[in-house]
Amino acid sequence: AAIIGETISEKRVLVYYEGEKIFDMDSEFLTGGPVYARDVKLVKRDQKDIQTQAPKDTNNILIKMLSDPNIASKDWVILQYDHTVRGSTSLTPLYGDVVNFSPQDSAIIKPVEELNKGLVISTAVNPFLLEYDPYWGAASAIDEIYRNIVAVGGRPHSLADCLNFGNPEKPERFGDFYQAVMGLNFATKDLKISFSSGNVSLYNESMIGSCPPTPTIVGIGIIDDVEKKVSSNFKKEGNTIYLIGKTEREFGGSLYYRIIGLSGGIAPKMDPQNLINYSNTLLSSMEKGIVTSCHDLSEGGLAVAIAEMAFGSDYGAVIELPLLKNMRADEFIFSESNTRWVVEVKDEKEFESLFNEKNVPFMKIGKVSGKKLEIRQNESKIIDVPIEKLREKWKNAIWEHMG
């Protein structure tokens, strides 16, 4: 290595050759570059709540969800790679008991052998939601990456992005880009976590059209002790299941509407302050050892999340829904509202005391029990399917598709 220069107080870049100045330029001009003046067209998206008919076969809808490539097990890909390099992986992408596995919201590695501190790593984006509403779709990606990290016991630290969009020379495409970036800004500024890196990939179009707005988010968190990690798979029969957060009639861009052939609806919103409060309270309950398993709610909503928690164990779940205002049971279990988790708890009193103290909404919904997923409301069965059948559909879907 050789010394080739030094920093100076002037905002200029100077280059000398054999004592003669051969380059002298304003540093802001040199690094600034031209600024494009693109035409922007912000597409107005009128979102209205849709009143739908109750489905005749909710079991079949859940099976279709678990077989959807966006939800089905990715073990076809994951098992082709070594995700335990150097033996430092504490929580793998698929994790469970000796025989079965559940999808995890994040992976955890222990980079320094002498320390128990771990790095929590996760990704998030929902192109279907972003195509429907770029602003709230981007904000939702931040909400999901944050809760993914929290779900395993990590505290969110920093972000990176990969902004994939269509041709910015088309005003509508540039409008999508603008709205998505503004959504990212809204969601992150109060969370006080920054984008440490990122890249932008534009002109992603072909003869059949543009890619959907896809700001893929990578998140990093810190967990002080990897031995205190929380995985998503159920741990013990008889433990209580709680839902954390508020469930709304938000189906814009949802998997539920795609399966039943509807478009429209209200896009999920998010509130950064609620995300902070809910997350801190959940992390506190994890640190106290109250929560034994946790899974965030995203595509497919509550029903999919509980099924996935059962896949990595030898247990099922019995869920008892209360009578709901302005929402049917099928809508409640398939809503994709943000800032929600399902948790398995061994001490109801301690859990409820903590969450009541912090004014975090929660609902006791059931127990880890049996070998089926049963979701009931007022003695009516909404879902009643053996876990093994659901697991088989979820695990085999991509293998069958790939041949």
**How can the largest sheet be summarized?**
7 strands, mixed
What is the CATH class designation?
Alpha Beta
General shape: globular
Looking at this structure, what is the CATH superfamily?
PurM-like, N-terminal domain
State the share of residues found in helices, binned by percent: 25-40%
Mean of the pLDDT scores?
96
Q: Give the number of helices.
A: 12
Radius of gyration from the CA trace? 24 Å
Strand content: 25-35%
Beta-strand segment tally: 19
CATH structural fold name: 60s Ribosomal Protein L30, Chain: A
Which architecture name does CATH use?
2-Layer Sandwich
Ranges where pLDDT stays below 50 over 5 or more residues in a row are none
Task: Tell me the domain tally.
Answer: 1
Looking across the biggest beta sheet, what order are the strands in? 14-16-13-17-15-18-19
Structural class: alpha+beta
Q: What is this entry, summarized?
A:
Helices cover 32% and strands 26% of the residues. It has 403 residues and is of the alpha+beta class.
Outline the secondary-structure elements.
Layout: E1 12-17, E2 20-26, H1 27-32, H2 58-67, H3 75-78, E3 89-91, E4 94-95, E5 102-103, E6 107-109, E7 118-124, H4 127-132, H5 134-151, E8 155-164, H6 171-189, E9 194-201, E10 205-206, E11 209-210, E12 214-223, E13 240-244, H7 255-260, H8 272-287, E14 291-296, H9 301-311, E15 317-321, H10 329-334, E16 341-345, H11 348-357, E17 362-368, E18 372-377, E19 380-386, H12 387-402
Parallel strand pairs: 8-9, 15-18
Antiparallel strand pairs: 1-2, 3-6, 4-5, 6-7, 7-12, 8-12, 10-11, 13-16, 13-17, 14-16, 15-17, 18-19
